[in-house]
C-alpha cells in the first residue's frame, strides 16, 4: 500500500520521470461535486518548475486530464483518475552518474531495496512524483472549501538562515503568499530569501528551508485517536514529501521549554458564543482531535541533494570519485513545495472529515 | 482503524484508566519466537509511574499476562494478546472537574468527537493507553534483536531549557540511559534536569522536554516509498504518542540552514567492505529507505496539561472558573516516555522488515 | 491483518483452545450505545457447545467480560474489548495424534505455514476461535437494530441430504429457529434432520449441512463497488467461518439456469410508496448495493473433519497409519453455526452502514 | 478503499464506459520482472466483446498502454499503471431509459447510493470496469508463473441448464478452453451450450451460467487465517465480479450431503516423496491454507439484466411502464468472464504469496 494514502478519502499515485506520465486515482470522492480540470490545474501550475530563475528552468506545462469519475462536470462518487503526461521521455545518457550513487539522494537506497533502479536515478524519488498528490489534494480542497468553508494556506517561513517575521495565521492568504516568487508573505524577508537562494545557485550549491501551513475552519471533533490522531496523520503526510526532515505542530520544539501554566490554552467564549481557546499553543489539536482553532504546523526541508559543486564520494563499487552533477537543478525546493504541503493537508483533512461524519451519523437518533 | 497500527506486523490496543484493564493484540507475529511475560515486563516496568518522586506517585505494578498466541514459551504465529489489569476501578468523584474542560487536555475534544466522555476525563487519552504499545513494542524489539541484531535506545535530551550535551549515537546504551532517574546519559546534565523537574513540581506546575532515539543495525532497503517512507511511518508513530508536538529526523530543523554541499553525506567504504556514508545528516534514511547507517530522531513533548496551579478558564457552559487540579501529577513525562518511544520505533521497524522481506523474496530466483 | 475484519467497524480477534482465553477488540463502536455483558451473552450461549446431545458434550460456560470501552453501561466510542476465559488449560496428551495430521483438518497446513503448531492440533483453527466473532457481532447487531431496525435471522436449511421446505424469509424469527435443537424452523424437517445427525454420531461419523440467513430492514445504498460489493464482503465474511465450502446469494447457483426475463426483478410501488421489487432473485443486492429488499444467502458447511471412525491415512513422516480420533466431537456443526453466521452478517452490515453514512454526509448541503 | 483490492500485491482500478478510459494501478509489483504490453494484451483480448456473434457485437480493440513502473522492459518495483482508452465517448441519447431503472441492473441502487448516476446507466457497474482487473491479473499471473510455476485455468462448466461433463482439473489447459467460442473444454457440451445462448439471443433474452477454475502449483502454506483464509479471499474476489451470485470451493454445496468419512481427504505420499492427499474434496485448502493440491472452485453467473424483451416494471417515479432495451447485448457473459475469473484468482494468489513469503522469511534463522 506504499503508493496509497488515506482510509475513506484515498489517493493512489503512480509515475516517475522517465515514463509516459504521472497521475493519481482518488477513491472515496463525494458524489455530486462540480469538478473539471480547471479546478485542479492552478495548484499544479503553482507546483511546476520553471516559474522563475529561482527554480529549475525545465519548462513543463503539466496539463492535467481527468480520465474518469465525472460526467457533465459533476463527480459520480466513483474513482477520479487524473493524468499528466511527461513531455520528454527520450532515454537520457547519464554517463558516469549511472555508476555513482549521488550523496544524500535515493540512488543507493532504491537499488538496495528493489535490486534495480531507474537509469535516470530519480525514478519515483524525483519531485515529479508529487504531481499526483497535488492533483488529488486540489480535489480534496475543493470539497472541503465548499462543504465546510475550510481553507489552507502554506508559505515559506525560512530559507537557509533567513527567517520570516511572524505571520498572522488567522488572516494570511494565498494571494499574500504568491505576491513574490519566494512565496513568503513577509515583505521584509523576501529579498534576503531570494538572495540566499541566488547565492546558493551561483555557488552551484543548494539551500534548505522551512514551510509553515495553517488550516482554518475545521470543526471540533476531527482526528482519530489513538493511532490516527490528526497530528500523527499530518506528520505522516508531510514527512512523506521528498526532502523533509522535520515536522512540528503548534508550539512544537519551542514548546518543550515552557511550563504547563504558560503552555496551556485556557478556554474562553468566542464572539459567536462557541467555546474556543484564548491562546493556541496546541495548534488546533488536543488529544489528537481538532478543537475548532486554526491548525498550524511547520515542515523542515533539507537542501536538495543534487548539486553542481564537486563532491568527493565513491561509486557503487566503492572507488573514490569526484561527482559534479550536470544540468541545472532547483537550488531550493521550498517555494515549489507550497502547493504540495497544502495538498497533503487537504488529503488528511478530507479523510478525517469522512471518518468523523460516519461517527456523527452513528450517534444520531435512529431514522 | 484508529486503534490499530501497522500493516503486516500490527498492533490493536484497547483500554482506558477507569476500565478493567488495558492491552494489545499483536498480529503478524513471527512464529517460533521464544516469548514469555519476562520478555515483555521490563519495558512495562520502565514505563510505569511511581519509579521516583519525579513521577506521579501512584503505584501500579502493571504486571502483564500473555493471553494467547504462545505455547510452551514459543509463538505460534497466531495473534498474541497481552493484558494488564487496572488496579483500582472504583468510580472517582471528579466533582467540579466534570464540568470543566481542562485547558490543553482532551476533555473538550473527546466530548466534541464522541458526544460522550469518560467521567475521569482521561479515558483513552490518558498515559495508561500506552501500555499496549509498550507491550507490543517489546515483542517487536525482541524479534528484531534476535533476527537482525537491531537495537534501539531512547534518552532524554532536554528538560525545559536544559539541554544535554551531544550523545554518541553509535555507542549509547540503555544502561547509560537508566544510570539516573531522569534518563539522560549525559552526567553533566542530569542534575540540572532533575532540578528543573523538581522546580516545576514544587510550583504545582509542569515542564516539557525532548526525547532522542537511535536505532542501530537496520539493513539497507527498509521503508516503503512513497507514502510509507520510513520517516513518515516514524513520524506517524511518534506523533501518536500523547503530548508530542514535533518530530525531526537526522539533521532536522537545523539542517534547513545548511547548504547541500555541507549537508550531503558522501559515500565511503566501511571497514567491512560495505558502502556507508562518512557523515549521517540523513539520519539513516534516503528517499524514505534505510541506508544502513543509524536511524536517529528527536521528539518534542509539551509540558503536561494537568497542573495543580490555579488556571483561569471556563466551564463547558462558558462561564469563567478557576481550576486547580487535585491530586499529584507527572510534572514531566519525558523520563517515562523512553520505553514508549522505543516501542513505537520497534513497531515501525518490524513492519518495515516484513514488508521488505516479502519484496526480497519476490525478487529471488524461482525455487 | 489476518485476524482483523472490517474498515470502519472493525474486529480483531485472538485466542485458541489451549491458551488463557479468547476474545475480541471492536474498534469503531458508535458512542453512546447502551451496552453490558447481558447484550452479548445470549448469542455466545447459543454458540456454545453442550447444548444438547447433538453437539459436543464439553460444558463451557463461555461467560463474557467487557474489558474496556464502556462506562456506566454506555459505549464511549473507544475500543470495546471482550474476553471469554478458557476453562481448562491443562496440557493434554494427544499421544500419537501429535504425529498424525488429521485428514481434512488444518494440522498439516498450519505446520506448513507457520513451521510450528499448537500441540492440540486445533489451535486457531478450532471452533473456539469464533467466540470473538460472535461477541463482536452481537455488539454490531444491537446497534443495527436500535438505529435502523435491522434484524438478521439464520437457520439450518439442510442437514446431509435432508432439506427444509422453503421458509418465508420475510417473517421467520429467531424464536421459530430456536423452537428445536436442530435450529430449523420447518417443523416437518426437524425430526429427519435430528435423526440424520444422530445416525452420523452413532456411526462415529459426521455430516454436513446448509445454513440460510436473511437480513431485513437494510436501507437502499449500502455496499461499496467495485471490490467491496456487499455480496463480496458477505462472501468473504462467511467463507472465513471454519468448515464452509460455498456461499450463494439470492437465486445463487439455481439462478444460472434461468433466463433474464425470468430472473429479473421488476420494480413496483410498495404500500408505503417507496420503490421496491416484485420478486427478489437479486437477494436484496444489485450492482453490489442494497436495494431495500431482504438480503438472503445460503452457506455450505462440510461434515466436520474430526471423526471417531477409523481412517486410513499417513503420519507426518508419510507412513501409513489408521487414525481413530479420541473423545467426542460435534457430528454436525450447523446448529451451533447459526449465531456465528448472524454475527458475521452483522459485522458486514455495520461496516457498510458507517461507510455509507460517511458518503451520505459528504453529499449533504454544507452546514 | 472500494476500488482497491489486495494487501501487499494491490490493484486500484478506475474508469467507466462514458469516460476517457479505464485502467489500473498495480502496487507491490515484484521488481526486475520482464514486462511489456505484450504480456498483458492477450488476456484483455480474450475478455473483449465482439469475439463472436455469441457476444455483444461492439468492436473495441482494448489496446493497453503501460504508463509507469517499467524501464527497458523490466519492472522497477514502483506502481505499474495501465490504461485502455474508450473508443467512443460521444454522449448517447438514452431517451426514456434514463427515467427507468432497468430491472436487476444497478441503476436504482447507484442512484440510491450516490445521489447521482452516469447517464448511460452502466457507469462503474458496466462490464468495462473489469478491464483494470484483467490487466492487473495478467501481471500477477506472469509473476506467479515465472517464480512458482503456477498456472490457473478457468472454463465454462454450465450454460443455463446445459452442464459440462466433468473436466480433469489436473490437466485442463487454456488451449482446451479456447478450442471453441463458448470456452467449454468438454467437446460434447459445446454445441448444446452454443445453442442455448443462441436461443436466448434469438428470444431477445439472456441466460446464466457457471464458470469453473483450477489453480495448480501453489505451494503449501498460502492463505491467512482467520479472516483472510484463502477461500474467503477467493470468495471476496470472485463475488466482486459483476453478475455473480454464488461461489463454492472443493466439494462445495454437494459436499454438505456427505459424511465426514467420505469427505475427508486422507494423506498419502506423492511420487516425489512429499505429503499430498489421495482425494481433494477440500479443493486444495484446509483451515484456509493451501495444502499443495490443486485449488478449484465454481462461480455462478446470473443471466444478464439488460434484455431486449419487453419487461413490465416502473419508472423511477413509480409509474408502470414497459421497457424494451435497445441495442444488442451479451446474451450470456460466461465465455467472456473466463479471463476475469483467472485475473481475480491471480490477484488473490500473488497477494497470498507475498504475505507468506514475509512470514517464511520471519522464521528463517538470523542472517
What does this molecule look like?
Four copies of one chain form a homotetramer. The first copy, chain A, is an alpha+beta fold and 367 residues long. Chain A has a single domain, classed as 4-Layer Sandwich (Chorismate synthase, AroC fold), CATH 3.60.150. Chain A contains eight helices and 18 strands. The first copy, chain A, has a five-stranded antiparallel β-sheet with strand order 1-2-3-7-4, with helices on one face. In chain A, strands 9-8-10-16-11 form a five-stranded antiparallel β-sheet. In chain A, β5 and β6 form a beta hairpin. In chain A, α1 crosses α3, α3 (130-148) packs across α8 (334-363) and α6 runs antiparallel to α8 (334-363). The radius of gyration of chain A is 21 Å and the shape is globular. The model of chain A has no long low-confidence stretch (mean pLDDT 93). At the C-D interface, β1, α2, α6, β11 and α7 of C face β1, α2, α6, β11 and α7 of D.
Amino acid at each position: 500500500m506504499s503508493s496509497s494514502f488515506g482510509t475513506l478519502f484515498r489517493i493512489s499515485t503512480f509515475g516517475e520521470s522517465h515514463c509516459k506520465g504521472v497521475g493519481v486515482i482518488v477513491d472515496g470522492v463525494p458524489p455530486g461535486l462540480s469538478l473539471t480540470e480547471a479546478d485542479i490545474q492552478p495548484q499544479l501550475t503553482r507546483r511546476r518548475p520553471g516559474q522563475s530563475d529561482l527554480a529549475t528552468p525545465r519548462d513543463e506545462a503539466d496539463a492535467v486530464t481527468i480520465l474518469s469519475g465525472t460526467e457533465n462536470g459533476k463527480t459520480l462518487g466513483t474513482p477520479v483518475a487524473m493524468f499528466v503526461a511527461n513531455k520528454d521521455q527520450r532515454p537520457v545518457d547519464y554517463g558516469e552518474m549511472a555508476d555513482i550513487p549521488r550523496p544524500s539522494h535515493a540512488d543507493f537506497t532504491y537499488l538496495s531495496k528493489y535490486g534495480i533502479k531507474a537509469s535516470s536515478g530519480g525514478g519515483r524519488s524525483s519531485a515529479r512524483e508529487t504531481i499526483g498528490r497535488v492533483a488529488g489534494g486540489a480535489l480534496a480542497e475543493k470539497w472541503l472549501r465548499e462543504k465546510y468553508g475550510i481553507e489552507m494556506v502554506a508559505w515559506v517561513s525560512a530559507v537557509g538562515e533567513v527567517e520570516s517575521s511572524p505571520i498572522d495565521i488567522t488572516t494570511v492568504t494565498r494571494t499574500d503568499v504568491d505576491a513574490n516568487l519566494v512565496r513568503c508573505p513577509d515583505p521584509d524577508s523576501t529579498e534576503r530569501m531570494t538572495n540566499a537562494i541566488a547565492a546558493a545557485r551561483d555557488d552551484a550549491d543548494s539551500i534548505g528551508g522551512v514551510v509553515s501551513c495553517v488550516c482554518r475552519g475545521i470543526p471540533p471533533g476531527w482526528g482519530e485517536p489513538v493511532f490516527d490522531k490528526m497530528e500523527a496523520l499530518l506528520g505522516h503526510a508531510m514527512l512523506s514529501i521528498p526532502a523533509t526532515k522535520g515536522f512540528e505542530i503548534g508550539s512544537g520544539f519551542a514548546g518543550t521549554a515552557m511550563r504547563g501554566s504558560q503552555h496551556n490554552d485556557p478556554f474562553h467564549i468566542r464572539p459567536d458564543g462557541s467555546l474556543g481557546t484564548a491562546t493556541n499553543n496546541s495548534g488546533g489539536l488536543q488529544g489528537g482531535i481538532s478543537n475548532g482553532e486554526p491548525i498550524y504546523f511547520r515542515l523542515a526541508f533539507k537542501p536538495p541533494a543534487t548539486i553542481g559543486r564537486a563532491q568527493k564520494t565513491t561509486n557503487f563499487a566503492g572507488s573514490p570519485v569526484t561527482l559534479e552533477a550536470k544540468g541545472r537543478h532547483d537550488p531550493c525546493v521550498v517555494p515549489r513545495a507550497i502547493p504540495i504541503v497544502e495538498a497533503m493537508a487537504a488529503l488528511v483533512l478530507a479523510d478525517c472529515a469522512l471518518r468523523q461524519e460516519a461517527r456523527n451519523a452513528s450517534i444520531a437518533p435512529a431514522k
